Amino acid sequence: MGFFGKIFGKDERIDPIDLGEILVDMHSHLIPGIDDGSKSMEESIELIKALYNLGYKKLITTPHIQTDRYKNNRDIILSGLDSLRNEVEKEKIPIELDAAAEYLIDDGFTDKMSKGGLLTFGKNYLLVELSYFSEPFNLKNTFFELQTDGYNVVLAHPERYTYWHNRIEIYEELVTRGIFLQLNINSLTGWYSKESKEIAEKLIDRKLIRFLGTDTHNQQYLQELQKSTSMPTLLKALKTNNIINKKLL
Ligand SMILES: [Fe+2]
Fold first, then answer.
1. What is the C-alpha separation between 15 and 38, in angstroms, rounded?
2. Ligand 1 centroid from CA 234, angstroms
3. Does 56 map to a domain?
4. CA-to-CA distance for 61 and 97, rounded, in angstroms?
5. Which of 52, 62, 108, 212 would you call most buried, defined as having the most Cβ atoms within 10 angstroms of its Cβ?
6. Is residue 8 one of the residues assigned to a domain?
């Protein structure tokens, strides 16, 4: 048993961690009405206030872009960001707001990729997610092409792709290939599933995580986030993995 295993028993809780330690959140669904996240401007403002109170200084919100379900594009997202920024200014919430997107690697993604101009954040980081049901075909090629085009690929919530549950070496390989892994903080309590929690813990043990995200969609995510701040595994991630959210400020 390693050092952290000894001091943190399995169901132990620690004093809540100030999420100001992370400073920047780079995964959320806060632009109202364009995906399965916030449903109204009022709800968005409540969520942003709560994230500010948890310690975040900057939010890079990432609406879904999916070929079949959420047909968002650059213009829709950036005009949504404008309205949201205006409202945040009116409400005098001292938080910086930016936007990118969470792209699903689906059949229509290659087309979007070849058109160029994908929404990124920081050092050309591109947030992508995969199907929860089956491993996408040709994933390695898609990632390689994105990297060749100059994108730094960030894989959203790798712990939620439970078809890789018993193939932890896949994550090592992705990291070796230069993919950045972004863990959802709420995976640490087992909120999504027991399997996701187990993968999350393995990824932290192997020091494979580079970004931590809230993936906020609504108030329930924030209630769970509050609980997550008492998980020893969150402290472990912050202390032993090279988490680079702060560099996005
Ligand atoms: Fe998301």
1. 30
2. 19
3. yes
4. 8
5. 62
6. no
184 phi/psi in degrees, rounded to 5? -85, 125
pLDDT tens string 144-159: 999 999 999 999 999 9
* Ligand 1 geometric centre to CA of 104 (Å): 10
Phi/psi for 60 (5° steps) reads -105, 105
Q: What spacing in Å lies between the alpha carbon of 17 and ligand 1's midpoint?
A: 22
Q: Which two tokens stand for residue 166?
A: 């018993």
Structure tokens, 159: 């712990």
Residue 7 lies in a domain: no
**Cα(32)–Cα(45) distance, rounded to whole angstroms?**
10
Nearest to 74 by CA among 52, 92, 99: 99
CA 8 to chain centre: 25
Task: Give the model's pLDDT for residue 6.
Answer: 47
* 223 within some domain: yes
Domains in the chain, number: 1
Which 3-state string (H, E, C) describes 184-227? Answer: EHHHHHCCCCHHHHHHHHHHHHCCCEEEEECCECCHHHHHHHHH
pLDDT tens per residue, range 57-97? 999 999 999 999 999 999 999 999 999 999 999 999 999 99
C-alpha 215 to ligand 1 mean position (Å): 5
Confidence of residue 136 (pLDDT cuts 50, 70, 90): confident
In one-letter notation, the amino acid at residue 215 is: D
Residue matched to tokens 């991630």:
237
Task: Count CB-CB contacts under 10 A for residue 199.
Answer: 24
**Domain extent at residue 90:** 18-248
Ligand 1 centroid from CA 35, angstroms: 10
